[in-house]
Amino acid sequence: MRGAPSGGDRVTEAPGGRIAMEKTNIWSRMGKWFRRSGRASAFDGGEAAHVSPVIAEEAVGASSPSTTEGASAGSGVGEGSSLGRLKLSRTAALERLEEEYQRVVELMDKIRAHMSAQEERTEAIVRAVAVLNERLAELPEWGRRQEEALRRVAEASESQQGSMKRLEGELMQLPQLADALRETLVSVDRNLTDSTETARRVAVTVDELGSAVTRLSDTSETSAKKIEQFRWDLNARDDRMTMLLERQTQRLTWFALAAVGLGAVGVGIGVAALLR
Predict the structure, then answer these.
(1) Is residue 272 part of a domain?
(2) What's the domain range around 72?
(3) What share of the chain is helix, strand, coil (3-state, %, to 5)?
(4) Closest CA to 23 of 35, 5, 40
(5) Structurally, how many domains does the chain consist of?
(6) How far apart are CA 82 and CA 42, in angstroms?
(7) Distance between CA atoms of residues 158 and 139, nearest Å
(8) Is residue 247, in this structure, part of any structural domain at all?
């Protein structure tokens, strides 16, 4: 786990318990460290920066009276050096303690941030698991739909196979249809050629018919004029015939009257001859 202290210590599940145990372990390690440093170099000038003030005082107080008296009688310079080293060790220990405390505070902040991030990740995992459970619950329905879709695909494939077979049969008939179409086109071409010739002939015939109609129109106009003239001639002839008939009738009437008169005369003569 990133940000966790070394030494094999592990954090419990609850956030409060994890932080409390982490604090206990840190302070326990710091106490052990100070005790080891005090026992190892309580009177070592080279290691004075690592001596705890409390351990240094205990070490000085625990010295035997004879040793203390010997030291006092020995030299004032030696006693002053010991007191200077003790003050330096206290100052260094306080500075080291402050640094360690600052490190502990930073470590606790990192642990707190890590725990918050861990809780967020846990919540995200819980939500993801819930979503996964929902998706897993939908799997049977999805499988059923997939099966139905596959069945429809199979049916469509079978239908497509039938369509492909029919299409293949129709494609096999294409050459025959192409030959028939070619023959039909050739026949149409011939018919078009014949139709063109026929159309030309019809055009010539129509032209001739137009000329004939024109001539007929001219002839009809001439005939109309002749008929009109003939009608006038007939009217004139009728007048002459009427006059001739009237004259002939008059002549016949006179001839008849003359014949009747002559007959009467002949009858009279015959009767007279008989009477004699």
Answers:
(1) no
(2) 15-137
(3) 90, 0, 10
(4) 5
(5) 1
(6) 11
(7) 28
(8) no
Q: Is residue 233 part of a domain?
A: no
**pLDDT tens digits for the chain (276 residues)?**
344 444 334 433 444 445 455 555 666 666 666 555 544 444 444 333 344 444 444 444 434 444 444 444 444 445 556 666 667 777 888 888 888 888 899 999 999 899 989 899 999 999 988 888 888 888 888 888 888 888 888 888 787 777 778 777 777 877 787 788 788 888 877 877 777 777 777 777 777 777 777 777 777 677 777 777 777 777 777 777 777 777 777 777 777 777 777 777 777 777 676 666
- Cβ atoms within 10 A of the Cβ of 52, count? 24
* Tokens found for residue 64: 């035997």
Indicate the SS3 state at residue 173. coil
Within a domain: residue 125? yes
What does the alpha-carbon distance between residue 273 and residue 276 come to, in Å, rounded to a whole number? 5
Q: What is the pTM of this model?
A: 0.26
